[in-house]
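To: structure desk
From: M.T.
Subject: fold request, one chain
Message: Could you run this one when you get a chance? Sequence is below, nothing fancy, just the single chain.
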Amino acid sequence: MRAIRLHEFGPADHLRLDEVPDLAPGTGEVRIAVEASGVHLLDTTLRKGEPGPMPRPDLPTIPGREVAGVVDVVGEGADTTWLGRRVVAHLGMVPGGYAEQAVTDVARLFPVPDHVSFSDAVAAVGTGRTAQGIVELEPAGPGDVVLVPSAAGGLGWLLVQDALSRGASVVAAARGPERTARLAELGAAQVVDYGEDGWDEALDGVTLVYDGVGGEVGRRSMELLRPGGRLVMFGYSAGSPTAFDTGDLIRLGITAG
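Reply: Done. Structure tokens follow.
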């Protein structure tokens, strides 16, 4: 099979398309003929060899942990009814998604209906469950003004849609005109480019921030919250988490989690 492998930590051009042996599922496993693979910020962190939530992999490695496709081989002890079915799976701590084949335990499989594309299924299996966890922790409501930095990313895109579906007013923020132009399609009350000076000056009455950016943008987003507001942090694509202390929470009269 063909697979994209990383032989040396560093930039994206360190990834190489290689021919490697076909995979064989073990006991209780299946093999998936991969049609779509997920690519995440975590994958780029691991590719660079930077410290993060997961240990650096041994090299060479096939990156990626989310795949969708069709089950083409069933291992011993696995339910044979999975054979030929459209599925999506998160491979967990074991990489191997950037390849034509992937092996995983049947417990990780989710069936994909015919009307759902493999690319949409991959977007839902990891990013979707993260978004669900965030909104379960702090759901938006009809009276909320929700600010979503990095709204043009996969996770932000889902958070904007969820807040809108709950009747909230949404401010969708991203960096650059190409990304903000896409956000206009979602129906947000405001779309702002946080790459521009003064991006936050016209924003008022924010009650909930879903912060996946951190850094300066996250800090300024927090400062926009009115008393009683909520800050939910789930990442820091800027490179560092939003910095605050107990004094900031007391001064602003907000909660953070």
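Reply (cont.): The chain has two domains: 2-125, 138-256. Let me know if you need anything else for the meeting.
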